[in-house]
Amino acid sequence: MTCRLAVTLLLGLVPMVACTAAAQTARVGAHYGVNLSDGHWEDERLGAQASVHIIGPVETAGAFSVFTDWPGATGFTGSAWQAYWTMRVRPRGPSSFASVGYGFILIRSSLRNASLQLDTSGSTFTDAIVLGLEAPTPYVRPFADLYLIDILDRESAVGVNLLMGVQIRLPTRRSS
User: Fold this and answer.
1) Which of 27, 47, 120, 172 has minimal CB crowding within 10 Å?
2) Do 164 and 141 touch, CB atoms closer than 8 A?
3) How far apart are the C-alpha atoms of 61 and 51, rounded to whole Å?
4) Is the pLDDT reported for residue 154 higher than 80?
5) What is the reported pLDDT for 29?
6) For the residues 133-154, what does the mean pLDDT come to?
7) How far apart are CA 101 and CA 86, in angstroms?
8) What SS3 class is residue 129?
9) For residue 39, is it left (φ>0), alpha (ψ between -120 and 50) or beta?
C-alpha cells in the first residue's frame, strides 16, 4: 500500500468515527514515549493522546508524538514526528484496565547537514498491534501502551514503541 493511499484511507475514516463517537466517552492526555526496538531506550518523544469509546467494548485512539532528541548526531539538524491511530477492544466498566488493538502509524522525518549539503526527508506508513494497560482510577488515568510495529511487513523486524502518560475524562453526552 502506498503512503498516499494509506493516508487517504485513514483520513476518510476519521469523520465517520467522529460522528459515531460523538455521544460516547472521551479521554485526552499527554504522553512520554521511547523506542525499545534495540533493547534500550532511544528516540525519546513527547505528545498528546486521545481515545473515544464507540460502542460496546470498541474504542478508537490516536496519538501524536514529536521526537525530542532527534536526530541526536552532532552536526545534523532536523525534526521527526509520529502519528498513531488504532481501533481497540477494552472491556467496559470502572475496573477495566487492559486493551488490545490494531492500527496504523505514520512516521515523518527530515534531516539536514549544512557542511555536507545533505537535505532529505521521508515518510513511512505501517501497521501496528497495541497492547494497553491503565490504572482504573475515576478521573486521571495513568496508562502505558506498547506498540508492536511492522506486523505485516515480512522484510523487516518488528519494532517496539512504548508510550506512557495520563489521560483525563472529558464530559460528554450520555449514549442512548
Assistant:
1) 120
2) no
3) 4
4) no
5) 97
6) 89
7) 6
8) strand
9) left
pLDDT of residue 122: 92
Instruction: Give the rounded distance of the alpha carbon of 149 from its chain centre.
Output: 11
Q: How far apart are CA 127 and CA 9, in angstroms?
A: 13
Dihedral angle, C-alpha 154, 157, 162, 168, nearest 10 °: -10
- pLDDT given at position 96: 81
Residue whose C-alpha cell reads 488493538 in the numeric block: 101
Cell of 137: 482510577
The strand ranges marked E within 7-115 are 26-35, 42-55, 58-67, 77-89, 98-113
Q: Tell me the average pLDDT across 83-102.
A: 90
**CATH domain 3-170 topology:** Porin (2.40.160)
DSSP 90: -
Task: Say if residues 164 and 146 touch (Cβ distance below 8 Å).
Answer: no
C-alpha grid cell for residue 112?
539536514
Q: What CA–CA distance (Å, rounded) separates 130 from 29?
A: 17
Domain parsing of the chain, residue ranges:
3-170
Q: How far apart are CA 122 and CA 72, in angstroms?
A: 17
Percent of the chain beyond pLDDT 70?
82
Give the C-alpha separation, 158 to 155, whole Å.
Answer: 10
156 secondary structure, DSSP code? S
Which H/E stretch holds residue 15?
Answer: helix 3-20
Q: Give the amino acid at 134.
A: E
